[in-house]
């Protein structure tokens, strides 16, 4: 009966969001209340669980996501992302254009959210297409594969950051494992698969060609790279020092403080405020205005994350989590594969990678605790599942189709297949890494 109620709840959630067009946050709240009452929670404990779920989830991810959005906004508006891409193209030329675009998307995708990175990089993709007379999909797909993987796999992007918090994973280790898995997945879905798409005819619409900043207005090359990658450099550097120094060493508490993702992001935003803002002649109020706009960009995402946290907490408070864990373990499927599968099913039904990942996390949380699954790998497995088979109910599908002016058939052949390759390759990487770590 537990599984039946949960299945009905997920189907109702899908129906409210997909068919009734109810906002995802409201849909989560309605379904959460219904689930709590169905599992026997009294109104008082039910609302207490909802408040706890909302607070705990937002409290653990709010700083990282908001500060990440601020950094990404400044990287975009200052022209640092455009400079990074231009430097890479200049260095490697057009002979290896797919690999160049893939690396550019990889670097830019770390601080930028997917939609921002997509719109920002479209002028660059189209300029390369027109200048060198190359097929648009062939040139653009590797970059977009990188952006998509960064969005689905790696913090500080919203879904993986929230998953790290829910599973009590280590953000630094999740990031490092994610890099190991993301790189081969991007290569397969980008340059390797992209070679089969040279024959797709795409004439991008002129109305979607955004004006790029003039070269004279761009920040310096070193400044662009360092400012954009500073969160990664800080986290990797601190983790390396922690591994190298003895535990009783005096700097250990300071390193532990710097290893906190929110602290690393705050330091990065502070540096970028100067390096990509005031040092380039931008008034401080203008930088703050950009930060305010970035918060508006992620406000709805934060509400969805909070709603998913409430559902998770109600499942825990109702005592259903233990039954759910035992039942899922009884399926015989490895937990990492099961997490990927649940996220994939919800992704196909709903279209949203973020909602798919967060909903799957709520279902898999008790199993991770009882089966002693590596929580860092579960974050990546669910993240991979949340990207599979993007189709007509996903905004990313239409973004790609309209910007590249493709038929639905060619969009399925290029975009949908690329996302599916990324997802399956990500799962394979997770399972392989799990096997290696178990040796």
UniProtKB/TrEMBL annotation:
UniProt feature coiled coil, ranges: none
Similarity comment text for this entry: Belongs to the GntP permease family.
Organism equals Hymenobacter luteus
- Per the record's keyword annotation, is Membrane included, yes or no? yes
Q: What is this protein called?
A: Gnt-I system high-affinity gluconate transporter
**GO CC: one term?**
plasma membrane
Q: Spell out the NCBIfam families in the cross-references.
A: gntP
Q: GO molecular function terms here? A: gluconate transmembrane transporter activity
Compartmental location:
Cell membrane
Domain of life per record: Bacteria
Topology of this chain in the membrane: Multi-pass membrane protein
Give UniProt keywords alphabetically. Answer: Cell membrane, Membrane, Transmembrane, Transmembrane helix, Transport
């Amino acid at each position: 009966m537990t599984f039946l109620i949960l299945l009905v709840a997920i189907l109702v959630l899908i129906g409210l969001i997909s068919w009734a067009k109810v906002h995802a946050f409201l849909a989560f709240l309605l379904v959460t209340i219904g689930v709590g009452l169905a599992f026997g929670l009294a109104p008082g404990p039910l609302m207490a669980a909802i408040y706890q779920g909302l607070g705990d989830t937002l409290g653990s991810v709010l700083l990282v996501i908001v500060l990440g959005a601020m950094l990404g906004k400044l990287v975009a508006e200052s022209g640092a992302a455009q400079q990074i891409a231009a430097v890479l193209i200049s260095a490697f030329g057009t002979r290896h254009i797919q690999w160049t675009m893939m690396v550019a998307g990889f670097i830019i995708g770390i601080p930028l959210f997917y939609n921002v990175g997509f719109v920002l990089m479209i002028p660059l993709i189209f300029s390369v297409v027109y200048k060198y007379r190359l097929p648009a999909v062939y040139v653009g797909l590797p970059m977009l594969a990188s952006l998509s993987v960064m969005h689905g796999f790696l913090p500080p992007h919203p879904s993986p950051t929230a998953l790290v918090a829910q599973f009590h994973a280590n953000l630094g280790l999740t990031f490092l494992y994610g890099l190991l898995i993301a790189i081969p997945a991007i290569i397969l879905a980008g340059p390797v698969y992209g070679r089969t798409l040279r024959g797709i005819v795409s004439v991008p619409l002129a109305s979607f060609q955004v004006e790029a900043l003039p070269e004279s207005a761009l920040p310096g090359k070193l400044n662009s790279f360092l400012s954009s990658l500073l969160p990664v450099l800080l986290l990797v550097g601190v983790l390396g020092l922690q591994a190298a120094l003895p535990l009783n060493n005096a700097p250990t508490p300071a390193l532990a403080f710097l290893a906190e993702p929110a602290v690393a992001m705050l330091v990065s935003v502070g540096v970028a405020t100067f390096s990509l803002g005031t040092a380039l002649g931008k008034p401080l109020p203008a930088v703050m205005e950009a930060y305010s706009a970035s918060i508006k960009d992620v406000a709805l995402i934060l509400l969805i994350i909070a709603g998913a946290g409430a559902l998770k907490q109600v499942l825990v408070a109702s005592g259903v989590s233990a039954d759910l864990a035992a039942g899922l373990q009884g399926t015989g499927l490895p937990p990492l594969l099961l997490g990927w599968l649940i996220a994939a099913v919800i992704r196909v039904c709903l279209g949203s990678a973020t909602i798919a990942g967060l909903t799957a996390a709520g279902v898999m949380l008790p199993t991770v605790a009882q089966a002693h699954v590596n929580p860092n790998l579960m974050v990546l497995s669910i993240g991979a599942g949340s990207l599979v088979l993007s189709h007509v109910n996903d905004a990313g599908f239409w973004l790609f189709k309209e910007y590249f002016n493709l038929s639905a058939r060619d969009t399925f052949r290029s975009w949908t297949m690329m996302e599916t390759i990324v997802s399956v390759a990500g799962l394979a990487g997770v399972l392989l890494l799990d096997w290696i770590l178990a040796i």
